[in-house]
Amino acid sequence: MYPRLIFLLIITLSLGVNAAFAQFEGEIRFRVFNPDQKSEETVNMEMTFTKNRIFIDSNTSTNVMAGLQAKGVLVRHDLQDFVVITDQQEALKVAKSDLESLINLLNRMKGREESTASQPFPWEERLVQTGEQKEILGYNAHQFILKGNAEGEYASVWLTEDIVVDWGLLSDAWYAIGSKQIDQEVPIEIVMNNQSFPLLIEAFEKDELVFKAESVSVDENTFDRSKTRLSSDLKVIGLTDLMMNMFMQQN
């Protein structure tokens, strides 16, 4: 359970920069270990942050729907939309207002019913701050333990307050849509908040490591800011175009 849910928290699929904190600008690279993965290829993920945009890139593709492989996602807070990078020549642009329509489309294709809202997460029972601290890539991090429902099932999350970002649209999308796609509520605030950032996440089942997302580098000076801009060679289609193409393929 945890490997799949925590991976969704990191790569899931704003309202502007909060003036109460200094927005982190830079690139953070992660190495992801998942034993359920069929390929032996190491999964590397990069997250690039600028003042009002986030770009999440990976060396592997994720199957979003039939015929649509997503490799990266650009979150444009300034334009209030998501751009799903499908390949080097094409991208799908989804406005925040159209996001629910896309999720409903995906659910219909997969034969899913919309889940009802789950109960509030029992923070006091499930989340523990251990008091442990350590330095990760030069940043001071604190450990939190998220307890699972079964014996030996838990996640260890190391957060640093030295990196803070505005998750904006990603957070909004989770509360509006993402939390309805699974059977129980996941406390997204642990890894997606404007007060701290996760540098290491490890998930355990029967006390054995089954998932690990570890930051391997942080670059605040020489990172490529152009990653948060779309190339002029990229063909951008909208949700209406996508639905029309799918309809034509079925007929």
Shape: globular
Structural class: alpha+beta
Task: Report low-confidence residues grouped into runs of 5 or more.
Answer: 1-20, 178-185
Q: First CA to last CA: what distance?
A: 38 Å
Compute the average pLDDT. Answer: 76
What's the helical proportion of residues? 10-25%
N-to-C order of helices and strands: HEEEEEEHHEEEHEEEH
Q: How many runs of DSSP E, i.e. beta strands?
A: 12
Would you give an account of this structure?
With 251 residues, the chain is α+β, with helices and mostly antiparallel strands. It has 5 helices and 12 strands. A 12-stranded mixed β-sheet has the order 7-8-9-10-11-1-2-3-4-5-6-12. Strand 8 and strand 9 form a beta hairpin. The N terminus is likely disordered.
Topology of this structure?
Layout: H1 2-11, E1 26-33, E2 43-50, E3 53-65, E4 68-76, E5 81-85, E6 90-95, H2 99-110, H3 123-126, E7 127-136, E8 139-147, E9 154-160, H4 169-176, E10 197-205, E11 208-219, E12 235-238, H5 239-250
Parallel strand pairs: 6-12
Antiparallel strand pairs: 1-2, 1-11, 2-3, 3-4, 4-5, 5-6, 7-8, 8-9, 9-10, 10-11
Which keywords apply here?
12 strands; twelve-stranded mixed sheet; disordered N terminus; alpha+beta
